Amino acid sequence: MAQLIDGKQLSNQVLQKVASEVEYLKGEYGVVPTLAVVLVGEDPASQVYVRNKVKRAKEAGMGSIEYRLDTETTQGDLNQLVAQLNNDPQVHGILVQLPLPPHLDEDEVIASIDPAKDVDGFHPLNVGALAAGQASLVPCTPQGCMIMLRQVHQDLSGKHAVVVGRSNIVGKPMMALLLQADCTVTMAHSRTRDIESLCRNADIVVAAAGRKELVNADWIKPGATVIDVGINAIEADGKRKLVGDVAFAPVSETAGAISPVPGGVGPMTIACLLLNTTRAARRQLA
Q1: Is 282 labeled as ligand-binding?
Q2: pLDDT by residue (tens digit) across 42-97?
Q3: Residues that bind NADP(+), according to the entry (predicted)?
Q4: Is the pTM for the entire model greater than 0.90?
Q5: Domain assignment of residue 95, given as a range
Q6: Is 262 within the bounds of a domain?
Q7: What's the domain count of the chain?
């Protein structure tokens, strides 16, 4: 049976570091690291995410400001709010919750955030810095995945990692971080041929395709480490249930270590968001 990589427990360790850094910045500089979260519309999943982010920020002693905007909010009004937050010295991190309603241009909004306050790590300048191996604010989910991997592997050098999914939010930055850790990285996606064989040769599989229980036991090399980024809602026995991109029960019989859904990558993403906010605050003091 695979070792369980407990995201809740690990996230609590990260949040303890965040709380210590918050205390230091308050005591040394009189600065309270503050995160501004902007939610447009009524997306239920986004509302849950935002509520959890705000709750964790307050628990860590951080400042947290919420902006809840109507679904009909215009591009101009949203851009104006972001500009206001960019210019507010009391705000150290800005998060515009995605997805946005269809009439709003996500790329335009992301590009309008000050890269120094872009705690999601999605701004083109932060993306480019990560790809070049330079200091940047790193996307939260891949950052959390790396912390989880290092619980299992002290040294990732030379490991063969397969990333399933090529999104800008997870897949591509995950590849960059694994390369920085000296892994050999293969990126697989919907057009990849014989994806099962690729995964079977991997020491590490990061599943981020957004397809429920796509990765099965016959995709996994015995003893491999599996990080499941997917969150998919299904109906089971008349109840709503969350499952990942990995068929957890059978894969956990083959893998050496595996992250669960829920309770794996999700809590790590929120913890890394707050970690990014403290890093942004410290850099803005320099």
Answers
A1: no
A2: 888 888 888 999 999 999 999 999 999 999 999 999 999 999 999 999 999 999 99
A3: 165-167, 231
A4: yes
A5: 30-116
A6: yes
A7: 2
**Residue 239 and residue 158 share a domain:** yes
Same-domain pairing of 158 and 196: yes
Determine if residue 166 is labeled as part of a ligand binding site: yes
Residue 1 belongs to a domain: no
Which residue, of 116, 131, 151, is where some domain finishes?
116
Q: Are 236 and 145 members of one domain?
A: yes
The mean per-residue pLDDT over the stretch 131-143 comes to 96
- As a three-state string, the secondary structure of the chain is CCEECCHHHHHHHHHHHHHHHHHHHHHHHCCCCEEEEEEECCCHHHHHHHHHHHHHHHHCCCEEEEEEECCCCCHHHHHHHHHHHHCCCCCCEEEECCCCCCCCCHHHHHHHCCHHHECCCCCHHHHHHHHCCCCCCCCHHHHHHHHHHHHHCCCCCCCEEEEECCCCCCHHHHHHHHHHCCCEEEEECCCCCCHHHHHHCCCEEEECCCCCCCECHHHCCCCCEEEECCCEEEEECCEEEEECCECHHHHHHHCCEECCCCCCHHHHHHHHHHHHHHHHHHHHHC
Residues tagged active-site: 53, 97, 120
- Domain contains 278: no
> Is residue 165 part of an annotated ligand binding site?
yes
